[in-house]
Each structure stands twice: as C-alpha cells, then as structure tokens.
C-alpha cells in the first residue's frame, strides 16, 4: 500500500471570451487562466489488487458526488485504463474550493489525481500523455494539470504560457448561490445569436492591455473582461454584491471567474486584501485572501 497527497489549486480567469459555438456542441474560448493558492487536498492510496477499482470519499462538501460522477474518480479510472494497471485506488478529497463556482475545483481535483497517480507509479506517462487524458476529462482539466498562468484557446486545451501578474494579491469569494456552466452558456448563446459573428463581444482591448501588463510592457489594465459577467451578474445578486464590496474595500480590479458565480478582486496591498476578505466573511460570504501559484 502506498499513499500520496497532492494539492489541487483553484484557478481564476483574468480574461475570458467565447468566440464561437462548435459543431460538437462545445465553445471555442480565449481565456487567460491563473492559478491561486486556494486549494483542495487530494490523498491517493494505491493498493495491489487482482482487478482495477476506484473508491472516493469527500470531506467538507456534502453536495459533491462521492461516486463515478466525480471527475477525480473518472480521472483515476482513465489513468488505470490507459496504463492497464490492476490496482485499487482510494481517493480522499478535502474540499476548500467552492463547488460549481467558476474556479475549476472539480477539474483541479481530476488533474491532481492524474499527477499524483503518475508519481505513485513512478511516472509511466509523459506530460503529453497526461494532457491527452486531461482533454478527455474536461475543458479546464488541461490547464489545471499544468497550472501557473496561460492563454487557453480551443476548448481550453491549447495553452501558451504567460507571465504571472506581479505585485498583487487576490481575494476570491462566492455567495451561497449557484449557476451551472450549461445555463450560463445558454444565456450567451441567446445573447450572441449562437455566436454567428453578428455581434462583437468587445473583449479585444481588454485582452491586449492585460497581456501588455503581464509581459511588463504596460500598467495594470483599467478593466478586465469576462463575457459571462453581465449575464451572470443579472442572475446572481450575491455575486454582484461581492463585486461592489471588493471595489469599496480597495480592489483595483474585480471580475467574475469562469461562468461564475465566484468573484475575485485584485489588490496591490496584501493587508487590504486580507481586510476585504474578513469584511466579506463577516457578511456570511465564503472569502479567501490568496496569492499566485
């Protein structure tokens, strides 16, 4: 029996645009994803057995499925199947990343399982092979497998590394509300006529300013862009209130992450970030002052 613990870090979207609706039903995106220090803990126990099997337990998240619907469970099954391994894998998740909140908690757990099992088995798979499994599991899993900061295109699987933002801290927060990614995309498809090219999303200027800042060729941008923001904020009063609180408490920028409803703020002063997180927690909101990873 061998046990290994892997951390599964949350991501935020410093930029997110949806470019087109694909024939396979997915959407082509252009997004700058960034890893932050809020994380789940994934403990893997590998036991020799006569046949491959997977079990999963989940701590501190009653709404997260502890069965084959869980992406971490699916990641372990995929790894065992690809490697023709005949062992038992027990997964224990300690959840800290808010679920269904736009911070890729489930995808990050799945990526952590792939990384952790590859270490337990003494790296039988190359990075390319692990990425192939990640793409099979979900659109955010490839980025979560590699982490840091990257421009993600296609479904999210085409990644170009970028410099991380310097000299800033973040507050990530989520009210007690949910909106599924499927519902959020349905709002966009209606608003942008299924992305037939007739309506411009308006994100190009924000993308250029963000990239200039990340590469040290320009100041912090005056705004960040997430195509979901207007649509989701109108449906999630808690997210809109968090955004207002972050700006009032000293954030230089604030934005919805992913398809929401989590919101993050960018702070140039760590003490202000910690005070803003404390203010939100006093209002009953799950809020965390975090750093880049």
Summarize the structure.
The protein is 33% helix and 30% strand. It has helices at residues 71-83, 105-120, 127-137, 141-146, 181-191, 204-214, 229-233, 237-248, 270-282, and strands at 2-21, 27-48, 53-59, 87-94, 149-154, 158-161, 169-174, 225-226, 253-256, 263-267, 286-290.
The value of Rg in angstroms is 19 Å
> How many beta-strand segments?
11
What global shape is seen? globular
What CATH architecture label of the largest domain applies?
2-Layer Sandwich
> What's the level 1 CATH class of the largest domain?
Alpha Beta
Strand content: 25-35%
Number of contiguous helices: 9
Number of domains: 2
Task: Give the CATH topology of the largest domain.
Answer: Ribosomal Protein S5, domain 2
Task: Describe the 3D structure.
With 293 residues, the protein is an alpha+beta fold. It has 9 helices and 11 strands. It has 2 domains: 160 residues, Ribosomal Protein S5, domain 2 (2-Layer Sandwich); 122 residues, GHMP kinase, C-terminal domain (Alpha-Beta Plaits, 2-Layer Sandwich). Helix 1 links the parallel strand 3 and strand 4.
């Amino acid at each position: 029996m061998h046990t290994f613990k892997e951390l599964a870090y949350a991501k935020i979207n410093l930029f997110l645009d949806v470019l087109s609706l694909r024939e396979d039903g997915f959407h082509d995106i252009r997004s700058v994803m960034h890893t932050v220090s809020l994380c789940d803990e994934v403990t893997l126990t590998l036991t020799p057995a006569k046949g491959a099997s997977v079990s999963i337990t989940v701590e501190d998240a009653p709404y997260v499925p502890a069965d084959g619907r869980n992406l971490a469970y699916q990641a372990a099954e995929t790894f065992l199947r690809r490697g023709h391994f005949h062992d038992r894998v027990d997964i224990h998740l300690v959840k800290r990343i808010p679920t269904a909140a736009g911070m890729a908690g489930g995808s990050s757990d799945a990526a952590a399982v792939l990384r952790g099992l590859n270490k337990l088995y003494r790296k039988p798979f190359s990075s390319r092979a692990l990425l192939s499994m990640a793409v099979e599991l979900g659109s955010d899993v490839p980025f979560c497998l590699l982490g840091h900061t990257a421009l993600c295109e296609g479904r999210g699987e085409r990644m170009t590394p970028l410099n991380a933002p310097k000299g800033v801290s973040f507050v990530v927060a989520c009210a007690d509300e949910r909106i599924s990614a499927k519902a959020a995309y349905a709002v966009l498809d209606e608003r942008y006529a299924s992305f037939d090219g007739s309506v411009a999303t308006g994100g190009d200027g924000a993308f250029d300013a963000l990239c200039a800042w990340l590469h040290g060729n320009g100041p912090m941008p005056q705004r960040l862009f997430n195509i979901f923001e207007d649509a989701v904020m109108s449906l999630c009063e808690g997210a809109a209130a968090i955004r207002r609180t972050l700006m009032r408490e000293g954030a230089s920028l604030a934005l919805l992450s992913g398809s929401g409803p989590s919101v993050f703020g960018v702070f140039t002063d760590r003490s202000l970030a910690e005070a803003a997180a404390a203010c939100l927690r006093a209002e009953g909101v799950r809020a965390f002052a975090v750093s880049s990873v």
